[in-house]
Structures are given as C-alpha cells and as structure tokens.
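My hope is that you will study the record closing this message with an eye to the fold:
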Amino acid sequence: MNSPLDIIVPILMGAALLWWIGRGMGGRSMLIATAVTLAVIVGVLLVQNAGWR
C-alpha cells in the first residue's frame, strides 16, 4: 500500500526544482518547464506503481 508521502514528496521536489530553475525564465519557458517536470513526475510514479523499481 502506498502512503501519501509517495505522492507528496515527488511533487514537492518538483516544485522546488521548478522554483530554483525558473527564477531566470520568462513566462513561456516556465510553462514548458512545468509541463516537462510534471510529465517526469507522473512517469516516475507510474513506473514505481507498476513495480519496476
């Protein structure tokens, strides 16, 4: 059974990474970075839940 931390921690790490990287970005670049980061987080969660650790 997955705990809520299995979802919360990657999201918080992604948000921190976006903040750190996005300080010097414009609006469109930040939107692209957000989409890519969310896609990576979703991919990691899907792989983890599939049992391919």
Summary: Residues 27-50 form the longest helix (24 residues). The chain has one domain: 4-50. The chain has a mean pLDDT of 78. The chain has two helices and no strands.
